[in-house]
Amino acid sequence: MKIAIEVQKLHKHYESFHALKGIDLSVHHGEIFGFLGPNGAGKTTTIRCLLDLIRPSSGTVRIFDIDPQQNSVNVKKFIGYLPGELNLDDRLTARQSLSLFAALRNHQADWKWIEEHANKLKLRLDTKIKNFSKGNKQKVGIIQAFMHQPRLLILDEPTSGLDPLMQKQVLQMVTAAKNNGATVFFSSHILSEVEEVSDRVAIIRDGVIIDTAVVQNLIAKNVRCVTITCEKQIDVDGLLNKLPHLKLLENKQNTIVLQVEKELAKVIDYCSPYTIKDFVTKEPSLEEIFLTYYTS
Prior knowledge:
Layout: E1 3-14, E2 17-28, E3 32-36, H1 43-50, E4 58-63, H2 72-77, E5 79-82, H3 94-104, H4 111-120, H5 134-146, E6 152-156, H6 164-179, E7 183-188, H7 191-197, E8 200-205, E9 208-214, H8 215-220, E10 224-230, H9 236-242, E11 247-252, E12 255-260, H10 264-271, E13 276-282, H11 286-295
Protein name: ABC transporter
Organism: Uabimicrobium amorphum
Family: Belongs to the ABC transporter superfamily.
């Protein structure tokens, strides 16, 4: 499988602060790759290193097998970038601002597409930036990232400041870009949107990638919530002594609710002599998995 982004042993120091601690990433061509972590985890620093906006202290970055440090201008030609902190000229209208961005890209912009998506996002193109809310400024940034149909989209918190309906529109744009052959790398701390559109996800914590997986595989291999009802009262103390990694969430008459990780078969074996009447298992959401990583 072709690799769109490859990062190896990436470190970034700010004097005594170690922002990135040797991260490794591979993003496949044509996939939507979610980059998860709270503020301060290293998401934006990683993105800035990808784009050669800042230089890493050590390690390597390749974008479609090109080193952005050696060929920064050419790499940026086929990237659409939405920064986490968007600065626009308040004196311009949205249309003038997008025209300026198009001129910087040798007028590689589809104005029919721009008009169509400005309408979908309810963005008034002839209003001055200074009169826009944060959400409307974000919409300008989103359109400029997509408007030249880039091979690679790098989006830093793309739905920040948007209401739920507009968030949905942006996620549809992301999916449409993938369907047209683009690769999408986007950072977020909104877990539901990552779960909805991503093919794979990486979780970063304190400058370290702590897991990378297909979203559904990440969900499948993690903690489950299990509710078991038996004909006889279960010896819960005996169960917890035998399987100490279990977490008891509820114990009411002949029903117990457990948090289970990798020991589901053993739980069933233990409860079988009590005659299981009902057994319900619930897969965790990406949010529940994320909280497990960040509280462990």
